[in-house]
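# nightly structure sweep
# worker-07 picked up a monomer target from the shared queue
# config: single-sequence mode, recycle default, output format = structure tokens
# input follows
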Amino acid sequence: AAIGILIVLAAVVLYVFPVLAKFDNTVFATIKNALVLCMHHLPQTISMMIATYGLMIFSYQYFTAYIITIPLVLYIDSFIFTRIFKSLENTNEQRAREAAEEKKAAAGLAEKNAAENIVENIVENITENTVENTAGIEDTDFIGDDSTDKTNGMD
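# output follows
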């Protein structure tokens, strides 16, 4: 059980610093996110562990190999982390787009409902006012003025 815990801890250590550099979290959230990422991307984690810890053991045996192994480990790990973080960013961007579309659809629906309510209220008010205004009018013939007989006052 202790060896398993050490292996998981070694995997989390690989992820803690890149997660800390990429995201702004508390210490506990950074460690938790590193644990989640290393378990979610297990094949990449295993290949990084083999490359990192294998090259470290090789470098302990041959001290001058540090000149090559340190940059090689950094290159391999950064290549894998770039792919992992790009997939996370794409997922987050896609979720943000979906949320924006849902919000826009909800706003459009709310605007449509508001417009329908306004139109219904206007129709009701016009109907009520027409009925109230025509209630006292009897059936009478209105004879209009003949405008041809009138002058504009310039004569």
